[in-house]
Design a protein that fits this description.
This protein is of the alpha+beta class. Helices cover about 50% and strands about 25% of the residues. The protein is built from seven helices and six strands.
Length: about 160
């Protein structure tokens, strides 16, 4: 079963956009092969698009691959960081026992943490880093729980359709 068998791409896009608008994350819906189905229009910060636009995209893809595998095996939400230090969460989406994809977000920093500026400086031009880092949003543990509960609620609503 594919995600588009359950709902239209536009409705999945709405969920990704809500993750961004309500919580500030880069909202994304992933197909069961871990490829992006849809993502939010907005970015959580200026660092992520700079990283994703070049050779440094592995910062995102290595964390995505690892968390995708863990979430699918656990059949539960997972939260961790990418190599740059941004929070990333994924929630697997099942219809009955059949895995259909994932809903997630990334791009905010956990409260009282810092981005790995040294790591970022190896990927981006030094003169760009200060400006890019100024756009970074922080998220509390409570807000992180809230976004995961929101995504779980969306999944329950979809399954009930």
């Amino acid at each position: 079963m594919e995600l588009t068998d359950i709902m239209s791409i536009e409705r999945w896009k709405s969920i990704a956009d809500q993750i961004h608008e309500k919580f500030g994350f880069n909202g994304t819906v992933f197909k069961k092969d871990n490829n992006v189905l849809v993502k939010s229009d907005g970015w959580a910060n200026k660092v992520c698009p700079a990283i994703k636009s070049g050779e440094s995209v592995s910062v995102c893809s290595s964390a995505q691959q690892r968390l995708f595998r863990i979430a699918r095996e656990k059949k539960d939400s997972v939260v961790d960081e990418c190599d740059a230090g941004f929070i990333k969460f994924l929630m697997p989406f099942y219809i009955g026992n059949e895995f259909a994809g994932m809903i997630g977000g990334c791009g905010c920093l956990a409260e009282n943490t810092k981005i790995d500026a040294f790591y970022i400086s190896k990927l981006l031009k030094k003169e760009d880093i200060t400006d890019l880092l100024s756009s970074t949003k922080y998220i509390t543990k409570d807000k992180l729980r809230e976004v995961i509960q929101f995504v779980q609620g969306q999944a329950q609503t979809i399954v009930a359709l």
